[in-house]
Structure formats: structure tokens, C-alpha cells
């Protein structure tokens, strides 16, 4: 697993550190950037992939809400969440255990021994300083006595005492320093062994963490592929629905035109039937009138005709 500072991450993403901080602030509920004990940000391949996704989404003119939704779906897809929940919980537990074990790089025993060595060194330095001051003061007093005319015997006696005290002091200091060196050597060996053990354990924990992170990264890639397939299927369905709606809209327009034409034809037909009916009524009335006139003419003719003579009544006259 590679680890990058904020400046290295900005160079890889070809953007500025200020932009990375703004993205972290915008998506702080989703995008969590890890930090060191001193508060410095650092980025892994996982964070870089998520930030690259954010950059690409903004390049596609997506707004902040759509970017948040996409990141949420990438990190926690609904369809595979139930299948991966157990594996993620186990991976997180292993990461927490490894992190807790890594924090034991500075045990109490190591700190105590280092403090003890530092304290002994301080005491030794203080003792040497005191002896040097005592020597200087004593020599100063001797010089003063010589200036005042002290006898040579006193000077020799004092010199002998100084030499004896100096030899005794040097011998004591050498013994103390040798003992201190032996103790320091033992402490250093123990510290080296502890550091070696901690380093070996840290390496094993780092390997386990790397394996777990790779496993989680593979899961994230699989989830992303699933989301991409879902997105493609959704886009295809949307296009088909849009095409169907357009087709239905055109069909509806044509149906409306057809219905309107039928209404128009119906009105024309009704008008033609009305005119034909009026024409028939008129013809019927004219024929009825002619018939009435004919009947009336027959009646008048019948009334005006003289009575006929019977031929056989001629002989009776």
C-alpha cells in the first residue's frame, strides 16, 4: 500500500492541495482522510481513487449532490451490501487489532530504561562538574598560600595530598564509569532486542494490513463494476422509455388529427343529409300539392258535366 502526502496526492491528481481540502470539507461524511498523530493528512491508493472519481464527476458537470450520491453508492452499494457486510466487519476488526498492536512500539519498560540511562548520564556529568570546580578552587587557594610565603614543606604536603586525592578520584570515577558502561550496554542490548521484536511484529502487522486493504480494494472494485453495470442498464432503460414516450406522443398527435378529421367529415355528412332531407320534403310537398290540384280538377269536372240521356227512353216520347 502506497502512502502519499497532500502535495504528492495533488501532483498525482493534477490539482491543488487547496482543492483537496475543499473536497474533504464538502464530503466529510463520506470521504474520511486519515491523519498522523501530529494532524498531518496522508492519502492511500483508496483515497486517491475516490478523489479521482470526484474530479471526473465534476469534469462531467455533476453537482455536489450527485457526486455525494455516487460516492455513497460506490462505498455502500445496496445490492451487494448484505453480501459483503460480514467480510467488511471481519476486515475492520483485523485492522483495529493490528492498529492496537502497532501502537505498542514504545513500551513502558523501554521508556523507563531510556530515562534511567539519561538520568545516570546527567548525574555523572554533574559529578564531573563538581570535581572540576573543587579542583579549581583548591588550586586557587594553593596559589594564594604560595603568594603569602607558605613553606616548601607545606607546598609539598599539599601537592602530595592533591596527587593522592586526584588518583583516588580518578580511580573512583573510572570504576563508576565502567560500571555505568556495563549497565548501559546491557540496557542497550535489551532495548535493541525490544526494538527488533517490535520491528518484526510491526512488519508482520503491516503485511497483514496490506493484505486486508488489498482485499477491501478488490471488494471495492467489484462493487464499482456492479454499480457501473447497473448504471448502464438504467441508462439503456431510460433511453428506451424516452423513445417509447416520443413514439406514443407522435401516435397521440396523429390520433388527434384523425379524430378531428372524422369530426369534420361527420359535420359535412350531417349537413349533406340535412340538405337532402329538406330537398325530399320539398319534393313531397310539391307532389302532394300537384295531386291535390289534380283531385280538385276532377271534382270540378264531375260537377260541371251535363246529365247523360238514356237511349232507350227515346221511344217513350
Task: Write a structural description.
It is a single chain. The protein is an all-alpha fold and 317 residues long. It has a domain at 1-75: Multidrug-efflux Transporter Regulator, Chain: A, Domain 2, CATH 1.10.1660.10. The protein is 83% helix and 1% strand. The chain has helices at 6-12, 17-26, 45-59, 64-75, 78-102, 108-147, 152-304; strands at residues 3-4, 43-44. It has a two-stranded antiparallel ribbon. The longest helix is centred in the last third of the chain and has 153 residues, at 152-304. The relative contact order is 0.06. Mean pLDDT is 75; it is low at 78-82 and 98-106.
Characteristics of this structure?
317 residues; mainly alpha; Multidrug-efflux Transporter Regulator, Chain: A, Domain 2; two-stranded antiparallel ribbon; 7 helices; 2 strands; 83% helix; rod-shaped
Topology:
Layout: E1 3-4, H1 6-12, H2 17-26, E2 43-44, H3 45-59, H4 64-75, H5 78-102, H6 108-147, H7 152-304
Antiparallel strand pairs: 1-2
Helix pairs in contact: 5-7, 6-7
Biggest beta sheet attributes: 2 strands, antiparallel
How do the strands of the widest beta sheet line up side by side? 1-2
Shape, per Cα inertia axes: rod-shaped
CATH-derived architecture of the domain at 1-75: Orthogonal Bundle
Spatial extent as radius of gyration:
59 Å
What class, by secondary structure content? mainly alpha
Amino acid at each position: 500500500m502506497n502512502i502519499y502526502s497532500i502535495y504528492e496526492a495533488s501532483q498525482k491528481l493534477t490539482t491543488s492541495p487547496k482543492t483537496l481540502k475543499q473536497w474533504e470539507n464538502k464530503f466529510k461524511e463520506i470521504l474520511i482522510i486519515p491523519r498522523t498523530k501530529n494532524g498531518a493528512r496522508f492519502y492511500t491508493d483508496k483515497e486517491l481513487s475516490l478523489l479521482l472519481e470526484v474530479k471526473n464527476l465534476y469534469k462531467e458537470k455533476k453537482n455536489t449532490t450527485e457526486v455525494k450520491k455516487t460516492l455513497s453508492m460506490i462505498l455502500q452499494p445496496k445490492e451487494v451490501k448484505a453480501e459483503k457486510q460480514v467480510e467488511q466487519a471481519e476486515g475492520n476488526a483485523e485492522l483495529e487489532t493490528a492498529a492496537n498492536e502497532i501502537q505498542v512500539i514504545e513500551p513502558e519498560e523501554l521508556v523507563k530504561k531510556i530515562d534511567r540511562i539519561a538520568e545516570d548520564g546527567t548525574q555523572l556529568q554533574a559529578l564531573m562538574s563538581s570535581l572540576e570546580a573543587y579542583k579549581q578552587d583548591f588550586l586557587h587557594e594553593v596559589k594564594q598560600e604560595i603568594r603569602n610565603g607558605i613553606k616548601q614543606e607545606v607546598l609539598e604536603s599539599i601537592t602530595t595530598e592533591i596527587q593522592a586525592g586526584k588518583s583516588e578520584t580518578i580511580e573512583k570515577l573510572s570504576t563508576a564509569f565502567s560500571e555505568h558502561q556495563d549497565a548501559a550496554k546491557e540496557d542497550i542490548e535489551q532495548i535493541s532486542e525490544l526494538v527488533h521484536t517490535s520491528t518484526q511484529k510491526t512488519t508482520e502487522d503491516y503485511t497483514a494490513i496490506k493484505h486486508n486493504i488489498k482485499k477491501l480494494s478488490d471488494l471495492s472494485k467489484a462493487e464499482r463494476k456492479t454499480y457501473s453495470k447497473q448504471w448502464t442498464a438504467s441508462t439503456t432503460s431510460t433511453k428506451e422509455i424516452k423513445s417509447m414516450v416520443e413514439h406514443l406522443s407522435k401516435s397521440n398527435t396523429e390520433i388527434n388529427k384523425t379524430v378531428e378529421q372524422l369530426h369534420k367529415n361527420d359535420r359535412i355528412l350531417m349537413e349533406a343529409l340535412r340538405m337532402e332531407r329538406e330537398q325530399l320534403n320539398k319534393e313531397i310537398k310539391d307532389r302532394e300539392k300537384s295531386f291535390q290540384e289534380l283531385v280538385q280538377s276532377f271534382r270540378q269536372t264531375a260537377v260541371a258535366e251535363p246529365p247523360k240521356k238514356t237511349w232507350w227512353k227515346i221511344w217513350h216520347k
